[in-house]
Write a structure and sequence with these properties.
The chain is 76% helix and 0% strand. It has 5 helices and no strands.
Length: 135
């Protein structure tokens, strides 16, 4: 949940602050990405609640729990934003891959394992879309 929220925030930042000759196209592209992440966050929070736990919902909790880092930028070019967001998606992909079998095998929670597999596929597709902009 924390990784999803931080990635959502960083994608919103790219949407709001991207500059350059490709501004219009990238502004729209980043919007489509953060909208998808908004849906993903909601699904993750609902999965957490389905399991009987409370979803983290404060900035301090997110920053404590995330595997990602905040980054300040000197330049707000689309390529820089794309590379940073792509690295974050790839980090999440690795984390999810490492834990899919753990849910199924260690916790015998096949529902969560299936959910995490779907989440992995979402991030893989979003990473592909980002990667395609780099040429």
């Amino acid at each position: 949940m924390a990784d999803e929220f931080l990635l959502y925030t960083k994608t919103r930042n790219a949407h709001w602050n991207v500059e350059g000759i490709d501004f219009a196209a990238k502004h729209i592209f980043f919007e489509s990405q953060y909208e998808q992440l908004d849906e993903t966050m909601d699904s993750v929070a609902e999965r957490i609640r389905t399991l009987g736990e409370y979803a983290p919902a404060t900035l301090s909790q997110f920053l404590k729990l995330t595997h990602l880092t905040e980054q300040s930028r000197e330049k707000n070019d689309s390529a820089g934003f794309i590379k940073e967001l792509l690295a974050d998606h790839e980090s999440i992909i690795i984390f999810l891959r490492e834990n899919i079998n753990r849910f199924a095998n260690d916790f015998h929670d096949f529902g969560t394992s299936d959910f995490v597999t779907s989440l992995l596929e979402t991030h893989e597709k979003m990473a592909w879309m980002l990667r395609a902009h780099l040429g």
